[in-house]
Amino acid sequence: MNPIIKVQELQEISEKEKDLVIVDVSNGKEARYNYEKKHLDKAIFVDLNSQLADIKDNFSQGGRHPLPKIEDFSEILGKIGISKHTHVVIYDDKNGANAAARFWWMLKAAGHKKVQVLDGGIQKAEQSGYPVNNHKVQPVPVADYPFTKWELPLVEMDEIRKTNDLIIDVREENRYLGISEPIDQIAGHIPGAVNFPFPENLNPDGTFLTPVQLKEKYTKLLKGQSIEHVIVHCGSGVTACHTILALDYAGLGNPKLYVGSWSEWSRNENKMATGANVD
């Protein structure tokens, strides 16, 4: 299944598919409030912090958005009505660059087949005339989702320390260069990482570039490196999934995700952080 779905395609299936779950995973302080004011018709809300991550007090252990335990995520999927047969369409208010891509990755890693991210997010849907309202939507729970391991490749901090793989840092250039750091304690980047900010995946209107365009961009970046030897990270393992989504959309496969990302690395290896400002 194509990992990206266009608004028109969603409009065509929204009234036909019986087992369709549309999910708003916009993130931020006002996300729940914004959802309650306005969301796509029949969309349920999923929270990044409480449902798609197991956040610890100490970010040096797993970063700002560690993956939840498999059994917890299995239960969450059941509670929001997702079974093995459900067609899941995910969107957010950041063109899929926020938690939409993360939820997509998690479902794919759980072995789910029918999952797509809405191209352009809620903004594009509204512009295209997709019905939006503030109606309350109650999920219809099903049994816990049956999976026992993450099926997409992951990498831990210890492997990052000794790897020869290509490491792609998808944060904005100023954060990568150590010029600024709005979230984590120090600025800089993992030694050897190359910078390819995730907005490079998008057109000016927030929709994804075509698979052909994405493939051309990433083929140049990878320089012959096989996808099995590529690691993608960001600040906390969320926007990195946007780049993994783009690579999948381009037909290049799924690289390894470093979930801990800069939020974990910078709290453990700050003396090894190239360009780091530790003052």
Write the layout of secondary structure elements.
Layout (H helix, E strand, L loop, with lengths): L3 E2 L1 H8 L5 E5 L6 H7 L1 E2 L3 E2 L2 H4 L18 H10 L7 E5 L7 H11 L5 E4 L2 H7 L4 E2 L23 H6 L3 E4 L3 H5 L9 E3 L4 E2 L15 H12 L7 E4 L6 H10 L6 E2 L3 H8 L5 E4 L2
Parallel strand pairs: 1-6, 2-4, 2-5, 5-6, 8-10, 8-11, 11-12
Antiparallel strand pairs: 3-7, 9-13
Describe the overall structure:
- The protein has 279 residues and is an alpha/beta fold.
- Helix 10 (240-249) links the parallel strand 11 (230-233) and strand 12 (256-257).
- It has helices at residues 7-14, 31-37, 48-51, 70-79, 99-109, 121-127, 157-162, 173-177, 211-222, 240-249, 261-268; strands at residues 4-5, 20-24, 39-40, 44-45, 87-91, 115-118, 132-133, 166-169, 187-189, 194-195, 230-233, 256-257, 274-277.
- The mean pLDDT is 95.
- A 5-stranded parallel β-sheet has the order 1-6-5-2-4, with helices on both faces. Strands 10-8-11-12 form a 4-stranded parallel β-sheet, covered by helices on one side. Strands 3-7 form a two-stranded antiparallel ribbon.
